[in-house]
Amino acid sequence: MDHIEGEINNFIMVWTIAASTMCYCHTIGKFIPRGKTRILAIFLAIFVLLLLPLRLTSVHLGGPTSFILVWLTTFKLLLFALGKGPLSSNPPLSLSYFICLSLLPIKLFQQHQPNLSNTQNNPTSQRTSLKPNVVHKKADIRDLTHTSKENVSKDTQNSQTTKNGHKSSPLLNFSYVIIVFAFTILIPIYANNEILHPKFKLFLYALQTYIGIEFILASISLLVRKLLGIELEPQFNKPYLSTSLQDFWGRRWNLMVNKILHPTIYKPMMNASTRVIGRKWAPLPAIISTFAVSGLMHEVLYYYVKREKPTFETWEPSWDSMCFFLLHGVCVAIEVAVKKELKGKWKLPRLVSTPLTVVFVIYTALLLFVPALVRCHVFEKEIKELNAIVEFGLDLYGSYFLKK
Hints:
Blueprint: H1 2-31, H2 36-51, H3 59-81, H4 95-103, E1 109-110, E2 137-138, H5 154-157, H6 174-191, H7 198-228, H8 245-252, H9 255-277, H10 283-306, H11 320-342, H12 350-375, H13 378-403
Antiparallel strand pairs: 1-2
Helix pairs in contact: 1-2, 1-3, 1-4, 2-3, 3-9, 3-10, 6-7, 6-13, 7-12, 9-10, 10-11, 11-12
């Protein structure tokens, strides 16, 4: 119980300092022009963001915190230092919206007003709505291969809309809550069951991770929508309906990361490759480079999650995650190359392509990605934390009725 209380206190402290750090970055944007000077000033904030998740050792609090601060926020600040990305706008964002945009996976919207366009004058630039509870045209979700607007997934754009103009999350329904509750009860059972096949247990671990991430992000989305009237970026868009690896990674899985990796890694690498091998084949090294960075960032996140104490520990990457993303990067590059050669003359029917894609993703994940989590003892920590949370809740429940 003391450990949970201490973790919650650390969690509050971490996010308070993170918000204060964003205030510093917002001030920098007013007085320091974009370029080298702003980059040097921003590095102080990035250093703080890298240190903050070290205070958290739980999977449920430390995992999402390290993902947002170390990856999403850090990359957004790098773009901000160059005068790009969602944090750069004309006129500048207010402090409250700057903090929300930098620390939360907020959906990006295109403004109808011409004076609120992005300073980069980029037709594909994206802006966040500065007025909550007002419907704006949602920006395109672009994939790693810079797919045109016509290929943007219609499932995301056609999600259910509530009366106040916001799009409701399909995750927060009764059936989904039942699934989460069932997994909470069954995890300790199947985790310690020696009868189950090891591969099947890995599959259950992967399903547990997927549901857990969706539930956490959906809960954050609901909270922020109620408090600020701001919609958060969906993390997933029915990945089980993917018709190809390009469709899976570009338009259905980890959409927040996709938006960050495209301007920071893919686009610069695309421009550099164009000068060397031409525009036709430039996407191939850009895709592989993007997946390589994603693999490296996952290795870094594993470091934060697997720690047992809120102190520095030696980084010992397993590189399984890196191999997983490099393998998929090469496969996506091959897929793009084949599509370029065929020029849309032939493609697999959906009834064939969807099962092939889903099976390949699951098989490679069970072969490389999930075992890396097992070695980091992520699932063992999750079970311990769930047991501790249950005990903590029972203690609070008992204390409440004893006072009465």
